[in-house]
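Re: the request from the purification team.
They wanted to know what the chain is likely to look like in 3D before they choose a buffer screen. I agreed to run a prediction and write the result into the notebook, where they can find it.
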Amino acid sequence: MAKKKEEKTNVMRILDQKKIPYTARFYEDSQGPQGTREYGVHVAQALGQDPRRGFKTLVARGASQSIYVFEVPVAENLDLKKAAKAVGEKSVAMLHQKELLPLTGYVHGGCSPIGMKKQYPTVFHRTALDYETVYISAGKIGAQVELAPRALLDLLGASTADIVVDQG
């Protein structure tokens, strides 16, 4: 995976504006499909990253019709029951892919919790705070940002909870 030409994304511009330090990481999109556990692990390995520090953005709708954003390590799966409990909903279901762009402004595989059309309640898996830095999408396929998790959670007004499927 060769590096792509570095260009600022909206996520990077927001971080610059808020004076939140980050490191941009670029990669060639050579292995699909985006959004899968294998893809996230592949990207992390290609960039020499620990997959436990890479977080993927998942968007769901609660029983109340409210929209929620969940951030889970790339090698993990979201537990919908735990996610619902974390946001006080009876249940949550993943958004259909066709709903993602109109609601968030991002495409599948390039969705970031920063800079969505509207700021939705956001929950990170509790392990995010275990690391000095974490990686999230920079808002387009082929770009990530690495930053301190506390700064990220503070920016988003996000919380943490155990929201992944237990490895049994």
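For the purification team: The chain has a mean pLDDT of 90.
Please add any questions underneath this entry.
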